[in-house]
Specification:
decarboxylase, 5 domains, eight-stranded parallel beta sheet, EC 4.1.1.19, binds pyridoxal-5'-phosphate, TIM Barrel, Lyase, Ornithine Decarboxylase, Chain A, domain 1, alpha/beta, 42% helix, arginine decarboxylase activity, Arginine decarboxylase, single chain, magnesium, 659 residues
């Protein structure tokens, strides 16, 4: 229950923001913290729409892409000239240019750290496929990264197959790092990759995997390149760090590493051990923790060199974080306190200083940054279709607290009011309410009390529906009169949170969600979002900045659609969300378009590989129903009564699951 003073503050704030001073795009940018989480890719333009800056800081003014125009083009009714594509919402809009810019920024951060610290080797990263396995995402990364030998990381057999085929068109030096649990088939496949001249490293996650590698490589006649994943003592204590530390799930302990070295030496294969790998978890909160981990790993690397392994690569794993809430704090789940450059500099500094002090040649530095590469390039756009204000969202005040706060005459008034309410004497109620008018808090509480008592009477059967409605209307009027901010509204959005934002539902991960247009207008509503699934968990009531509601604009008459649509965007969801939600179940997957910057008449072009979202038929099929049989049944029924079979057929095939 919120303290009453908080209600008064909120009322004052609402009154202040109501002033007629013009609302500018800069005000929206501040309210939604766009600069904090969005720079250099997203800004609010002078039309009050979100602009995408496809080349980051290097984007020229005429290259900026107005996101609303993209959405209109993709979702407008299909036209024969292809100007509008007729795709349903929700819609994932991908920007390969942004992906390219992220990859290049990561590379250049390492390049510049290496140059400024006079490091004697180079950086050569890999992209962990699990982060977003989409064909275009993986192929684009291989293409954009081939100039600097960027490779892929796979953690399962299907990922390895996907990585192998994608890397056939990449740089021959690009690394193919095989992590994850390995059985005979996985190891065989990795060795086949080596035979195909892919630069494959089999990383041992468990000691037993070495026996498989030794045996299968003999059988296939391939000399393997082996890496070892170290279980570091350095622990990342944040949400994603449970796999790190001595008790972590993955990697080899010090004694296991020693046994691996001994066994490789016994088999005259010590020259095969080339890479040391570690991964302390996602969203590493600070560069201090990172430096600790890299220091420890670099010492292990140097020890392996001393023991005679032909080491050449140190792989610092993933964990390069994203600032989801724009706060630049080390609250690792939603924010991190460093930049790409800080991260790269810290890695290079640690590896260099440990190797220098041990007199060991500088290794190639590899990282497996996933989230940091793919998060920005994809935006989920959805639509608010209606809103409602339900009394359960209005401020709750218990009667005890309430009576305690009342003084003297106000208390007498309140008691009279209550008595009148109990007698169904609404005229007297309103008279007493009038006397309380100057006292906003009391009046507000009175309205709540009145409602509560009426509900009790309704349940007993002594009050009719018309009277209940009249009381609700009176109370609402009172809220308005005293300028209390309206109760929180629920905006219904055409989205399945389980499919599109699984990490919000599963691990409370927050993503920036904002309207992508109307940003020249002051948003007056406080809202939570509710999706179109009938599940009570299908709502978003936590937002970046510790907020439990989001400021939104009024929908036009007849809901968002009647007013030309009210579009919201969820940003930074390019990593994990699609993989978790989209591939696990094909349930109501959103439509997808890819958009590139173009110097044509419009600043963008929609690529011709758009994928429509799931139809009702698709969704039924995923649950083992057979839409064709169902259609036949309904057709037979329809022939019996009225001829509407064509409408029926299109509801299975054309009608989108959402939207
Ligand atoms: C998940 C994972 C990554 C990617 O982590 P990010 O935090 O997305 O950079 C890298 N390496 C391994 C071994 C992983 O399991």
């Amino acid at each position: 229950m919120p303290p009453l003073t908080c209600c008064v503050d909120a009322a004052a704030a609402a009154a202040a923001s109501d002033s007629t001073a013009a609302w500018s795009p800069a005000d929206s940018s501040r309210l939604y913290r766009v600069e904090g989480w969005g720079a250099p890719y997203f800004t609010v333009n002078s039309n009050g729409n979100i602009s995408v800056r496809p080349h980051g800081a290097q984007t020229l003014a005429h290259q900026e892409i107005d996101l609303l125009k993209v959405v209109k083009k993709a979702s407008g009714p299909e036209t024969s000239d292809g100007l509008e594509l007729g795709l349903g919402l929700p819609l994932v809009v991908r920007f390969p240019d942004v992906l390219k810019n992220r990859l290049e920024s990561l590379q250049s951060s390492f390049d510049s750290a290496i140059e400024s610290q006079k490091y004697n080797s180079h950086y050569q990263g890999v992209y962990p496929v699990k982060c977003n396995q989409d064909k275009f995402v993986v192929e684009d990364i291989v293409k954009f990264g081939s100039g600097f030998k960027f490779g892929l990381e796979a953690g399962s057999k299907p990922e390895l197959l996907l990585a192998m085929s994608s890397l056939c068109s990449g740089s021959p030096d690009a690394l193919l790092v095989c992590n994850g649990f390995k059985d005979v088939e996985f190891v065989s496949l990795a060795l086949v990759a080596k035979k195909l001249h892919l630069n494959t490293v089999i990383v041992l996650e468990q000691e037993e995997e070495l026996d498989i590698v030794i045996e299968v490589s003999k059988k296939l006649g391939v000399r393997p390149v082996i890496g070892a994943r170290a279980k570091l003592r350095t622990k990342h204590s944040g949400h994603f760090g449970s796999t790190s530390g001595e008790k972590g799930k993955f990697g080899l302990t010090t004694s296991q590493l020693l046994r691996v070295v001994k066994k490789l030496r016994d088999y005259e294969m010590l020259d095969c051990l080339r890479m040391l790998h570690f991964h302390i978890g996602s969203q590493i909160p600070s560069t201090n923790l990172l430096a600790d981990a890299v220091d420890e790993a670099a010492q292990i690397y140097c020890e392996l060199v001393r023991l005679g392994a032909h080491m050449g690569v140190i792989d610092v794993g993933g964990g390069l974080g994203i600032d989801y809430d724009g706060s630049k704090s080390s609250d690792s789940k939603n924010s991190v306190a460093y930049t790409l450059q800080d991260y790269a500099s810290a890695v290079v500094r640690s590896v260099r200083s440990v190797c220098d002090s041990r007199g060991v040649k500088h290794p190639i530095i590899c990282s497996e940054s996933g989230r940091a590469i793919v998060s920005h390039h994809s935006i989920l756009v959805f639509e608010a279709v209606s809103n409602s204000t339900s009394s359960c969202n209005s401020p709750e005040i218990s009667s005890l607290d309430f009576e305690e706060q009342l003084k003297d005459d106000a208390l007498a008034n309140y008691r009279n009011l209550s008595a009148a309410a109990a007698k169904n004497d609404y005229e007297s109620c309103l008279n007493y309410a009038e006397q309380l008018k100057e006292r906003r808090v009391e009046q507000l509480n009175y309205a709540e009390q009145l409602k509560e008592r009426c509900v009790k009477q309704f349940k007993k059967g002594s009050l009719g529906m018309e009277e209940m409605a009249a009381v609700d209307a009176r109370c609402e009027l009172m809220f308005k009169e005293i300028g209390f901010p309206e109760p929180v509204s629920t905006y219904h959005v055409n989205l399945s949170i389980f499919t599109s934002i699984p990490d919000f539902w599963g691990i409370d991960q927050l993503f920036p969600i904002i309207p992508i247009h109307r940003l020249t207008e002051s948003p007056k509503k406080e809202a939570i979002l509710s999706d179109l699934t009938c599940d009570s968990d299908g709502k978003i009531d936590k937002f970046i900045g510790g907020k439990s509601s989001l400021r939104l604009h009024e929908l036009g008459e007849g809901g968002g659609k009647g007013n030309g649509g009210y579009y919201l965007g969820m940003f930074l969801g390019g990593a994990y969300e699609e993989a978790l939600g989209g591939v696990h179940n094909l349930f109501g997957r959103p439509s997808v378009v890819r958009v590139s910057q173009s110097d044509g008449p419009q600043s963008f072009a929609v690529m011709d590989d758009a994928v429509p979202g799931a139809s009702c038929g698709d969704v039924l099929r995923a649950m083992n129903h057979n839409p064709e049989v169902m259609l036949k049944t309904l057709k037979a029924r329809s022939d019996e009564f009225v001829g509407i079979s064509s409408e029926l057929a299109s509801s299975f095939n054309k009608m989108p699951y959402l939207g």
